[in-house]
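Project standup — Tuesday

K.O.: blocked on the structure for the chain from last sprint. Re-posting the sequence here as requested.
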Amino acid sequence: MKARVYVTFKPSVMDPQGQTIRAALQGLGHKGIEDVRQGKFFEISYHANEDIDAISREVLSNPVIEDYRIEIIG
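H.V.: unblocked you, prediction finished:
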């Protein structure tokens, strides 16, 4: 089986890298860009008995400042 795990900062957490990217895009003439949030992406191959939710919560993300979303792809 495969899963994709997307980890991003919670909306209340500042994202300095995202803000730097937004400023760079606006500097390049993309004035319609209002906000950019960056994150991490993991693609995991696993056996069916693995708890991907626990792995995402306990290892791949910091639950104090990050949210995660799991997409099972097969």
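K.O.: great, moving the ticket to review. The mean pLDDT is 97. The two ends are 5 Å apart (CA to CA).
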